[in-house]
């Protein structure tokens, strides 16, 4: 059992469409309204949009909500994976609360059932108030407005909050410093100061990474040899890495990822590079564990502070090797790959916005904001209009980027910062 984290954490969870799945009820309404749901489409969005396009508009959608959250609760289910997430929190003694934007009665059915009591009764019937979940009726809070919900999240002191609506995170009263996790099973753009997860398994990985805990149990053996010791290796950002010591003296690195998609993609990429005998990368040892991918352990230091010319030569050799044809057998792109200058700029602007929304208690916060507002935003404002032409059709990235720099007699600040290729 991992040790309990030293800091105090409190994970807040939304209720409707996050902890509770209304898929069965929505499918029932889709059939009633004659809505065809295409593969990959959001069931909720399709039904809601159909209502908004009708003569009644939002009133029709409110009527469906009144049914889903009232008499139709019999069709509701616990969102897949949510129980396992709650059990993981409880096993690691991490408290959780539910904060829901839910009025007492539905606007479209003021004489209908009490929606809050209906939700609590449903949670009890589903066993969500059992000792294994850590939840109780007293840990469920309701708010009549979104602003009240944001205020409740702040008052409770949540360190993390998981919700299916970006509008909650964008509310002016939503507390700064809370790690926002957007629950989007149907997919969503990562445009905002929040993480996006498509399942409760991925949500668990994100929270576990923040709390420096493994989401699943780490491997207990590698190729039949018992693991006798594990040690967390610090320095990573998107993933957590552990050193695994086996009884025969062998050592491995187990890497836990924030999402299964990222885990699979990186492991497949390394397997491909191993097959091409690309130097300077670890070999893939095992993918048998759902918790992590196990790699060859390479001793080193982090961060690297003493870089020699030989180190740079090795890095350049690696870059040349991975860009040398043939590339048969690999067609997938990196998770955040970009293929045009406009996409490069969009990525820079999105990350700049995230920097500006960094909590005030973050180390070097004031210096960072001064640089972003005083230098970086000014540089971005000097760029010429975006060009969506793929980089592959415009020569090297540096050559293409220079074409967009401000043209003036004296070298601009961009020319001073641009690396010399």
What this model shows, in words?
The protein has 421 residues and is α/β, with parallel strands linked by helices. It contains 14 helices and 14 strands. It has helices at residues 23-33, 43-52, 58-68, 82-91, 115-125, 146-156, 166-170, 200-210, 260-275, 309-322, 341-356, 365-382, 397-402, 413-417; strands at residues 11-13, 20-21, 77-78, 96-101, 140-143, 160-163, 179-183, 195-197, 221-222, 225-233, 239-246, 251-257, 284-286, 293-296. A 6-stranded parallel beta sheet has the order 5-4-1-6-7-8. A hairpin with a 5-residue loop joins strand 10 (225-233) and strand 11 (239-246). Residues 1-7 and 394-421 have low confidence and may be disordered.
List keywords for this structure.
alpha/beta; 14 helices; single chain; six-stranded parallel beta sheet; disordered C terminus; 421 residues; six-stranded antiparallel beta sheet; disordered N terminus
Topology:
Blueprint: E1 11-13, E2 20-21, H1 23-33, H2 43-52, H3 58-68, E3 77-78, H4 82-91, E4 96-101, H5 115-125, E5 140-143, H6 146-156, E6 160-163, H7 166-170, E7 179-183, E8 195-197, H8 200-210, E9 221-222, E10 225-233, E11 239-246, E12 251-257, H9 260-275, E13 284-286, E14 293-296, H10 309-322, H11 341-356, H12 365-382, H13 397-402, H14 413-417
Parallel strand pairs: 1-4, 1-6, 4-5, 6-7, 7-8
Antiparallel strand pairs: 2-3, 9-10, 10-11, 11-12, 12-14, 13-14
Q: What would a concise description of this structure say?
A:
By secondary structure, the chain is α/β, with parallel strands linked by helices. It is built from 14 helices and 14 strands.
């Amino acid at each position: 059992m991992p040790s309990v984290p030293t800091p105090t954490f409190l994970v807040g969870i939304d209720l409707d469409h996050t902890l509770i799945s209304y898929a069965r009820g929505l499918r029932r309404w889709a059939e009633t309204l004659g809505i065809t749901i295409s593969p990959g489409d959001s069931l909720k969005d399709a039904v809601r949009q159909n209502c908004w396009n009708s003569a009644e508009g939002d009133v029709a959608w409110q009527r469906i909500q009144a049914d889903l959250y009232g008499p139709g609760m019999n069709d509701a289910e616990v969102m897949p994976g949510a129980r396992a997430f709650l059990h993981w929190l409880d096993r690691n003694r991490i408290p959780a609360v539910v904060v829901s934007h839910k009025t007492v009665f539905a606007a479209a059915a003021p004489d209908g059932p009490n929606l809050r009591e209906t939700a609590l009764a449903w949670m009890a019937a589903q066993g969500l108030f059992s000792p294994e979940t850590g939840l109780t009726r007293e840990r469920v809070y309701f708010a009549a407005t979104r602003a009240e919900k944001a205020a409740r999240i702040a008052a409770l002191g949540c360190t993390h909050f998981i919700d299916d609506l970006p509008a909650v995170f964008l509310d002016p009263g939503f507390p700064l410093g809370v790690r926002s996790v957007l629950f989007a099973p149907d997919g969503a753009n990562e445009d905002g100061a929040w993480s996006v997860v498509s399942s409760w398994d991925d949500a668990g990985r994100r929270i576990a990474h923040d709390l420096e805990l493994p989401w699943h149990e780490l491997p207990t053996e590698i190729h039949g040899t018992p693991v006798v010791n594990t040690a967390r290796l610090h320095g990573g950002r998107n993933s957590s890495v552990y050193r695994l010591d086996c009884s025969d003296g062998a050592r491995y690195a187990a890497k836990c990822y924030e999402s299964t998609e990222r885990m699979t993609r990186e492991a497949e990429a390394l397997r491909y590079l191993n097959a091409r005998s690309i130097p300077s990368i670890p070999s893939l040892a095992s993918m048998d564990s759902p918790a992590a991918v196990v790699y060859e352990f390479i001793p080193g230091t982090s961060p690297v502070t003493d870089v020699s010319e030989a180190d740079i030569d090795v890095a350049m050799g690696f870059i040349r090797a991975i860009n040398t044809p043939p590339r048969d057998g690999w067609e997938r792109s990196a998770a955040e790959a970009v293929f045009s200058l406009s996409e490069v700029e969009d990525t820079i602007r999105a990350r700049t916005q995230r920097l500006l929304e960094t909590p005030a208690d973050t180390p070097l916060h004031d210096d960072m904001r001064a640089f972003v507002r005083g230098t970086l935003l000014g540089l971005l404002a000097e760029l010429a209009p975006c060009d969506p032409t793929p980089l592959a059709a415009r020569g090297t990235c540096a050559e293409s980027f220079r074409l967009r720099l401000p043209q003036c007699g004296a070298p601009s600040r961009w020319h001073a910062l641009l690396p010399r290729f």
